[in-house]
Amino acid sequence: MFNRMLASIGVGNAKIDTLLEKARYMPGEEIRGVIKIRGGKVEQRIEKIELAVMTEYIRESNDQKHKHHVAIERFNIFNPFVLMPNENREQNFAIRLPHTAPLTIGRAPVWVKTELDIRGAVDPGDNDRIEVVPTPQMNTVLEAINLLGFRLREAECEYASKLGRGVPFVQELEFVPTTQFRGQLDELEVIFYSSPNELELLLQIDRKARGFRSFFAEAMDMDESFVRLRYSNNDLAAGPHALAHQLADLIARYV
């Protein structure tokens, strides 16, 4: 009885450890691993074991920035079962990293959170950080932007419920011009919308103020243009140089 009371507050409770096959993934890639569970000092009923792909985003309120953790997607791994004292169990799993997962550049952590739901007890958990790297299609875009002389200045996940497509945030990649468009643009912001067969881009082209009329437009946030682009995987197979020419012509129309 005493051991059961202790387990209810987490002392002598079941333990859980998640081991991932690797630490680096692309959006849409399969994450495989094993969940190891060790029973505590008493018999316990496990209601479920859930994996969640987590990240954090910034939301501004009253001129202050606040960090929020969010589950991009949740996966139920186990059906209910009874875990005996000191019993060891293992469960292999395979989940797919959502296409909405941000790239882990700048201030954008991503981790896999494992939660053990135990009836009448404190729920143990485990967190495993992963690195999310660009898909080949994203890399083509990033290389094309680099060829145009843009340098990545910042990457941040920001609250944008209307743009998030199932999540309450978007990841904004902010680039500054260093050569071709220097003196014409303040910055170029890029948002990726990835899917298995295509890559959609939302570009925010921020023109540099020139003269009093342009300065007024900039002060009123009227100097920004938004452009949506869609590229199939076959389109992007032409490579970064072909895409750089297209983007250069596009940007030139807005400066």
Which descriptors apply to this entry?
single chain, Immunoglobulin-like, six-stranded mixed sheet, five-stranded antiparallel sheet, 5 helices
Number of domains: 2
- Along the chain, the helix and strand elements come as HEEEEEEEEEHEEEEHEHH
- Structure classification: alpha+beta
* Amino- and carboxy-terminal Cα gap: 74 Å
Just name the CATH architecture of the largest domain.
Answer: Sandwich
Oligomer: single chain
CATH class of the largest domain: Mainly Beta
InterPro entries: Spore_0_M
Pfam family, one: Spo0M
Organism: Paenibacillus plantiphilus
Protein name: Sporulation-control protein spo0M
Describe the protein in words:
This is Sporulation-control protein spo0M. InterPro entries: Spore_0_M. It holds the Pfam family Spo0M. This protein is an alpha+beta fold. It has two domains: about 1-130, Immunoglobulin-like; about 135-250, no CATH class. About 20% of the residues lie in helices and about 50% in strands. Helix 2 packs across helix 5 (about 240-250). The longest helix has 13 residues, at about 240-250. The radius of gyration is 23 Å and the shape is elongated.
Summarize the structure.
It comes from Paenibacillus plantiphilus. The chain is an alpha+beta fold and 255 residues long. It contains five helices and 14 strands.
